[in-house]
C-alpha cells in the first residue's frame, strides 16, 4: 500500500504544540480532510505533543518528530509522535479538578486505533493514532501499521 506522508521536526518546547496544530490543519486542507476528522486529529496531536514536551526528559536539543500519513485510498489518517524518551505513557485517573492527565483517555475515546512502541534504533518511543476517513471502513480489515521513525 502506498501513502502520502509529511514529517515535521519541532523542538521540545511548549510553542511546538501550537505549531504542530497549525501544520496539521494546513496539511488537512491540502488533503481535503473533513472538518470533523481534522478537529479530532488536531486535538489528539495536541495531546501527544503536550505529553512529549512535558514528559520526555531528555538532553537539550532533542526534537519531537511528527509524521502524518494518508493511505492511498484516502480512507485512513495515521499520525505519530516520536520523542527520545524511553518512558512509555501510562493511564492516569485524574480527578475532575485536575487540569491534565486525560490524553490517553481521549485517544481511547476518539481514535479508531492507537498504540505505542519503542523506536527501532533503541532510543525513544513513538505513540500513534489512526482515524478512519470512511465511516464504513472496518478498522480490523484494513489496518495501517505505523512507519518506523528514524
What is the structure about, briefly put?
With 150 residues, this protein is an alpha+beta fold. 30% of the residues lie in helices and 27% in strands.
Largest sheet: 5 strands, antiparallel
Distance between the termini: 20 Å
- Main-sheet strand order equals 1-2-3-5-4
Number of helices: 3
Q: Outline, from the CA principal axes?
A: globular
Work out the number of β strands.
5
Work out the radius of gyration: 15 Å
What value does the average pLDDT take?
Answer: 82
Strand content: 25-35%
Annotate the secondary structure layout.
Elements: E1 3-11, H1 15-30, H2 35-55, E2 63-71, E3 76-83, H3 103-110, E4 113-118, E5 125-132
Antiparallel strand pairs: 1-2, 2-3, 3-5, 4-5
Helix pairs in contact: 1-2, 2-3
Description:
The structure is a single chain. This protein has 150 residues and is α+β, with helices and mostly antiparallel strands. 30% of the residues lie in helices and 27% in strands. A five-stranded antiparallel sheet has the order 1-2-3-5-4, covered by helices on one side. The radius of gyration is 15 Å and the shape is globular. 27% of the residues are buried. Mean pLDDT is 82; it is low at 141-150.
